[in-house]
Amino acid sequence: MRKQPDGKHSYKVTFEVPAEVEANQAQVCGEFNDWSATATPMTRRNDGSFAATVTLEAGQRYRYRYLVDGSRWENDWTADDYVANEFGGEDSVVEV
After folding, report:
1. Most Cβ neighbours (<10 Å): which of 18, 40, 55, 80?
2. φ, ψ (nearest 5 deg) of residue 87
3. Do 51 and 18 form a contact (C-beta atoms < 8 A)?
4. CA gap 40, 35 in Å, rounded
5. Phi and psi (nearest 5°) for 81?
6. Low-confidence ranges of the chain (pLDDT < 50)
7. Residue 13 pLDDT
8. Which pLDDT belongs to residue 7?
9. Which long-range contacts (CB under 8 A, 24 or more apart) does 2-9 make?
10. What pLDDT does residue 68 have?
């Protein structure tokens, strides 16, 4: 994940799934898009990784996870933090 300022009150955050995940498709789902499995599709790069850039409000923490191939949830191991979720796992957290 990479963060760049986008004005005084927001950041452009690029979420990335590495090629090692071996996926055909990926989505980033989180509090910023109501955990939608279709709102933020990730683009496949030539090296097999995936990326999507989202503008987020500064001064906030957002939970998120990656939905891989429509059925497998993956965390972002470069996240700022992790918090337990109600499904017995953890969500990744980005702080902007």
Report:
1. 40
2. -100, 10
3. no
4. 9
5. -165, 170
6. none
7. 97
8. 77
9. 3/94, 3/96, 5/58, 6/55, 8/58, 9/57, 9/58, 9/59
10. 98
pTM, rounded to two decimals: 0.92
Cα angle: 37, vertex 70, 27; to 5 degrees: 45
- In order of 19, 22, 55, 63, 91, the CA distances from 44 in angstroms are 9, 11, 19, 23, 23
In order, the DSSP letters of the chain are: -EEEE-SSSEEEEEEEE-GGG--S-EEEEEGGGTT-SSSSBPEEPTTS-EEEEEEEETT-EEEEEEEETTTEEE--TT-SEEEE-TTSSEEEEEE-
Q: What is the dihedral of CA 65, 86, 71, 61, to 10 degrees?
A: -10
Q: Which two tokens stand for residue 4?
A: 């760049």
What token pair was written down for 2? 């990479």
